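Lab notebook, bench 4. The sequencing result for the construct came back, and we need a structural model before the next group meeting so we can plan mutations. Quick request posted to the team channel:

Model the 3D structure of this chain.
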Amino acid sequence: PLPARRMQGAGKALHELLVSAQRRGCLTAGVYESAKLMNVDPDNIAFCVLATDEEDEGDIALQIHFTLIQAFCCENDIDIVRVNDVAKLAAIVGPSEESGEPRDLHCILITNPNEDGWKDPALEKLNLFCEESRNVNDWVPTLTLPE
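Done. Here's the predicted structure in token form:
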């Protein structure tokens, strides 16, 4: 595995990416919503986050969804990470803007913004991190979000 410092840097970059994607309306949350987007507009997906808590470990349906999402991401060259803290994600991403309801945060997709050529520096950091992880055969690295 990669050194702790790289992991921390990637965790911080993920936090920044989620905040900026949310602000720009480039964030899709929810297993169902993500699957729909993958079906309709796969070329526009820039990054994928899968999140679980301990109580999700026994959720077979969720694990099957994760397997399918991971396969899709690998096939379409979409970088993907796991996070083991849904509560921290919820604190960053917040409830649904339309309904104010808590969102399903087990899967989050970041799409490319419409501005041509705009690259999020946090996304670039994460892309590099994922590439380095693949080089050591860690295909879906697990990140810890900063406190």
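The chain has a mean pLDDT of 89.
Will bring this to the meeting.
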